[in-house]
Amino acid sequence: MRKNILIIDDSALIRRVMSDIINSDGKLQVAGIASNGIEGLDLIMTNPKDYDAILLDINMPKMGGLEFLEKMNKNNIKIPTIVVSTVAKEGTKETIRALELGAFDFITKPGSFVEAKSDTFKQRILKELKVALRIDDEREATVSITDRKNGSSSLSVPAGKKIQTGKSIKGTKLVALACSTGGPKALQDVIPTLPKNLNAPVLLVQHMPEGFTQSLANRLDEMSNLHVKEAEDGEVLQNGVVYIAKGGRQMRLNKVSDGKYKISVTQEAARGGLKPCADIMYESLVSSDFEEITCVVLTGMGGDGTRGIKQLKEHKKIYVIAQDAATCTVYGMPKVVAEAGLVDEVQPLKKISGAITQNVGVH
C-alpha cells in the first residue's frame, strides 16, 4: 500500500513538481495539497490518520511553516515533516527553528524550474520521504566493519548502562561529536546542558550544507553556558568552546609547534557525499597528544564516524558514547558504531550531556 503524502506550499509550480515526483514512485502518493499552513492544518485536524508524511514550505501567507509546526506540537500530532527551504541567508534561522520544532529534515528548494525538474531534486525528495517513513528498511547502516562482536547485528547492552568501566584520566581531554538527521533538535538536549567549566573543548560535525551551520551555532550559543561557534580556519582550540564544522567544508585538528592545536577548515571534495564528514574529523585526531578523547555519536542516517573512530581507537585512548535507538530520529550512525563493537556507553538523549561531563570532568 502506498504511503500518503501531504504537500503544503504556496507555489503552484513547486506543488505540481513535487506531486509528479511523489506519484512517480510506486510506494508513495499525494493524498492532499494545501497552499498555506491553515489549509494544511485543517486537512490534518479533520483526518490526521490520512497522512503519513508532510512536505512543508516555510514562508507562506496566512500561516507559515513555523507556526504550522508549533500548532502540530500543541495538538500533539506527530507526522514526519520534511521542510523544503531556500538556502538564502534570511531563511536559515527559520530552517534551524523548524528542525528544533521537530521537522525530520530539510531539503533545499530549487531556485529555478530547471533545478526543480532535475533528477537531483527528485531523488532527494524520494530519499528523505522513504527514510522518514522507514520504507526499504532505511538501509542507512552501510559501513562495512569486520570486527563486529560475535557477528551480532545489534547491541545487547541496554541504554543507560556502561559496556566497560574506564578510569577517569587527568590531563588534556577532547570531546568529538557527530550527528546528522535529527541532530539540530537533539543538540538542544546536549550542548546547552553542558557545564561552562567543562574540562575540554568540543569538536562537532553536523551534516548540513553551507549557510546553515552559522545559524545553528548562533542558536545553540544563545541557549548554552558554553560558547558555541562555527569553526574558523586557523583558530586555536580552547577549553569550554564548542566548534561546529562549517557546512560545505571539511574540518580537521592540527597540532602546531608550540603544543597548541589549530582547526583546519578546507574546501575540498566530499567523502561519501558528506561535507563536513565526521570520519575526516576523527582521523585527524590520530596524531594528537590528548590523553583521552570522548567520542559521541548521535542520531543520523548512514554510518559516518565509525571508520574514523575505529582508526582512532587503534592509536589513542578513547571513550565512545552513543545515543540509544528509542530517542534517535534515525537510528543509523549510533547503530553502526555500536554494531562495530566500539561503544563504551549507550544513553538516551537527555542523559548524553551528563555522560560527557562525568567522563571529561570540570575544572
TrEMBL record:
One of its GO terms (cellular component) is cytoplasm. It is an enzyme of class 3 (hydrolase). Pfam families: CheB_methylest (PF01339), Response_reg (PF00072). Residues 4-124 form the Response regulatory domain. It comes from Velocimicrobium porci. Gene3D superfamilies: 3.40.50.2300, Methylesterase CheB, C-terminal domain (3.40.50.180). Contains a C-terminal catalytic domain, and an N-terminal region which modulates catalytic activity. The modification 4-aspartylphosphate is found at residue 57. HAMAP family: CheB_chemtxs. Its EC number is 3.1.1.61, 3.5.1.44. InterPro entries: CheB-like, CheB_C, CheY-like_superfamily, Sig_transdc_resp-reg_Me-estase, Sig_transdc_resp-reg_receiver. May play the central regulatory role in sporulation. It may be an element of the effector pathway responsible for the activation of sporulation genes in response to nutritional stress. Spo0A may act in concert with spo0H (a sigma factor) to control the expression of some genes that are critical to the sporulation process. Involved in chemotaxis. Part of a chemotaxis signal transduction system that modulates chemotaxis in response to various stimuli. Catalyzes the demethylation of specific methylglutamate residues introduced into the chemoreceptors (methyl-accepting chemotaxis proteins or MCP) by CheR. Also mediates the irreversible deamidation of specific glutamine residues to glutamic acid. Phosphorylated by CheA. Phosphorylation of the N-terminal regulatory domain activates the methylesterase activity. Belongs to the CheB family. This is Protein-glutamate methylesterase/protein-glutamine glutaminase. GO terms for molecular function: methyltransferase activity; phosphorelay response regulator activity; protein-glutamate methylesterase activity; protein-glutamine glutaminase activity. The keyword Methyltransferase applies.
